[in-house]
Design a protein that fits this description.
Among the domains are: about 80 residues, Alpha-Beta Plaits (2-Layer Sandwich); about 60 residues, 2-Layer Sandwich (Alpha-Beta Plaits). It is built from 11 helices and 9 strands. α4 packs antiparallel against α5. The radius of gyration is 53 Å and the shape is rod-shaped.
Length: about 350
């Protein structure tokens, strides 16, 4: 038999037990044997201590054994490579020592106090103890706080908000939140052609509601507006032309008289001229029409606003010069100019259809 240097033999480490050995001495001998057992696993008839031997002693003795096994395993593994049986022996010993320690600690836990009877309601929210108040003359042993009875808990269910919905007949879960589901958008194929990927449904454009055209009558004396209305209603010619085109009559914030025309009436300027001839110097008449802004590009750098107005009169066949259509004239690239012109919607549409205008 080969002995390892520095390690006592099995018989030297473990003294023979005798029936006269006191219990502390026997526990100490078992602790010494448990710590040294993994080192003698290769000896003939060597065996590990039994679980009964691991169960002997107090909690401090078991902790001492685990500490000794861990230190012995660390010293044995240090600077060694081929470690098989010894490591397995240490592993088994540590496992049994730890199991014995767990059992010892579990046996020292005081027993749980008796559970009080549950209330009549089956819901955990309303569960109360029958001994919620202890009597004044209770002994110290009976003054242990009792735990509430949770009752019978069924399978846990969750609502659509991922909250635990417990089974109870006394209340009903109500979800007041209204969630709007988004409509699934059509997905285009990844490998499709460029044309199919480029064509996507566009949101519909909001329809813009324009104010109808109107005629503004401004008088120096506000008291003359009543006489002006009487004159307009008393003239049969104006009733046929202007009266049939007027939708309502109101006063503006500045105090002027506003004749709001019906939808589809586009000759507000002509009606304003006719009213101006009838009223004369009594009041000033002007027409309000919804206009569109268009740009005229590639103009010569010597072109003026007056020339632009004259060219539009000749192009559209309507005298637009009295409306002062040319709003701005700015310089552009290569010595050219860009003009911004405001025209009524119908005249602007006609000018855009023509596309070109010759100025100068």
């Amino acid at each position: 038999m080969v002995r390892k240097p520095g390690v006592p033999s099995w018989t030297e480490r473990v003294p023979p037990s005798s029936p006269r050995t006191p219990p502390p001495t026997m526990v100490k001998a078992i602790t010494t044997r448990i710590i040294a057992a993994p080192l003698h696993c290769k000896e003939k008839d060597a065996r590990l201590p039994s679980p009964a031997e691991f169960a002997t002693g107090t909690v401090e003795d078991k902790i001492e054994r685990i500490d000794g096994l861990i230190q012995g395993l660390g010293k044995f593994i240090e600077n060694k490579s081929n470690l098989h049986k010894e490591v397995i022996s240490y592993q088994l010993s540590l496992g049994m020592a730890f199991s014995a320690l767990v059992k010892s600690l579990g046996s020292q836990v005081p027993p749980r106090p008796p559970v009080a009877d549950k209330a009549i309601c089956t819901s955990p929210l309303f569960t109360v103890s029958t001994m919620s108040k202890r009597p004044a003359d209770a002994s110290p042993e009976m003054r242990v706080p009792q735990k509430r009875s949770a009752g019978f808990s069924g399978p846990i269910q969750t609502d659509q908000n991922n909250n635990v919905a417990e089974d109870c007949d006394d209340y009903v879960l109500v979800d007041k939140r209204r969630r709007q589901r988004r409509k699934p958008q059509p997905q285009m194929p990844i490998n499709g052609d460029h044309a199919s990927r480029a064509l996507r449904p566009r949101p519909p454009h909001r329809r813009v509601h324009h104010r109808p055209n109107a005629i503004i009558i401004e008088a120096d004396d506000p008291s003359t507006y009543a006489n002006i209305l009487k004159k307009l209603k008393g003239d049969p010619a104006l009733q046929k032309t202007v009266g049939s085109s007027v939708n309502n009559i109101r006063r503006s914030a500045a105090g002027a008289l506003v004749l709001q025309l019906k939808k589809g009436v586009d000759n507000a300027s002509d009606l304003g001229e006719e009213l101006g001839k009838v009223l004369g110097t009594t009041a000033t008449v002007s027409a309000l029409q919804h206009t569109s802004m268009i740009e005229i590009k590639d103009l010569n750098e010597s072109v003026t606003k007056e020339e632009i107005t004259m060219a539009l009169d000749a192009l559209l066949g309507v005298p637009v010069s009295r409306r002062d259509p040319a709003k701005s004239l700015r310089k552009a690239y290569a010595g050219t100019q860009v003009a911004v012109v405001a025209l009524p919607d119908d005249l602007a549409a006609t000018a855009l259809k023509l596309g070109h205008v010759r100025i100068g």
